[in-house]
Structure formats: C-alpha cells, structure tokens
Amino acid sequence: MFAARKAEAKTEAETELKAEPETVEPQSVVAARALKHRPVSPHLSIYQPQMSWVMSGLHRNMGVLVGGGAYLWAAAYGLAPLVGADLSSVAVAGALATVPAPLLLAAKALVAGSLSFHSFNGIRHLWWDTGRSVTNQGVFNTGYAVIAASVLATGYLTFF
After folding, report:
1. 143 and 103 in one domain?
2. Whole-number Å distance between alpha carbons of 2 and 128
3. What burial class does residue 47 get, using C-beta atoms within 10 Å of its C-beta: 0-12 exposed, 13-18 middle, 19+ buried?
4. How many domains does the chain have?
5. What DSSP line would sit under 14-75, residue for residue?
6. Does residue 2 fall inside a structural domain?
7. Range of the domain at 26
8. What is the per-residue pLDDT across 105-119, written as a single tens digit (0 to 9) for each?
9. Where is the sequence biased in composition, kind Basic and acidic residues (predicted)?
10. Per-residue DSSP letters for 116-152?
11. What CATH number does residue 104 fall under?
12. Which tens digit of pLDDT belongs to each residue from 69-94?
C-alpha cells in the first residue's frame, strides 16, 4: 500500500521535474523581462517636495557642511606647523585679500547661509522638544520663521 503511494509520488514528482526544465528560465532572463514590463521602484522624484522633509534634509546637509568645515579647519590649523604652513590670522587675511570680491562674497554667503540655517533650525528643533508648535500649522509657521531668519542673517553676515 505504501509502496504504491511512493510510486505515485515518484511519478508525479518525475512528471513535474520533466516539465520544469522546459518552463524555467535563468534568473537573469527573468530579471531582464521584469525590467522591460515593470516600472522602476518609486523614488523621491515622484513626491511633491514638502517643507518638512526638504528642511530636514537641508538641516542635515548644512550640519555636515558646517561641522565638516570646522573639523577640516581645526585639522589644518593643528597640522600647519608640522608641514611649515602659516595659518595665523595675518596670513589668512592676506590670502583672502587676493581672492576676487565676487568669489569671496559667494564663499561668505555659503558659510553664513549654512551656519545660520543650521543654527535657526536647531533652535526650531529645541522649541519642538518643549512640545510647542508640533502641529502641521506650527511646523509651517516655524519653518517660514527659520527661512526668514536665515535669509536675514545670511545677508547681514555676508555684507557686513
């Protein structure tokens, strides 16, 4: 009785195995066909930019820019005597005096904008940590306040 069932099972399994090689394709062929007939996975480009996630990304990027710049400057300042470079205030001021004014203003605006935006948005996050303005309207209001304060501070730090 059991032998008959095993024989039936073998026969069915063998039948399935015989059918498989004809229908099974290599994975690369299946993947290529899938790419032809299916869209690529969604990406950020399909979403409409919203203030909350744009400002979050900018906050992180400005933090990397400001923090990375500070670390690079500190490392250069610390290693300068070892390689014979002069990074004293007089030497840096003299070097910056040779930079064309538009390029110097652009560099000042980049540093001032990054620093002011990251600082004001950090204050915004501290404000949220107290439980205030954590509504949709509060997020927009504080976002516009950060943008306005950053633009004003960037202009002031760049030109004065």
Report:
1. yes
2. 72
3. exposed
4. 2
5. HHHHHHHHHH---HHHHHHHHHHHSPPPP-GGGSPP-HHHHHHHHHHHHHHHHHHHHHHHHH
6. no
7. 8-44
8. 999 999 999 999 999
9. 1-21
10. HHHHHHHHHHHHHHTT-S-SHHHHHHHHHHHHHHHHH
11. 1.20.1300.10
12. 999 999 999 999 999 999 999 999 99
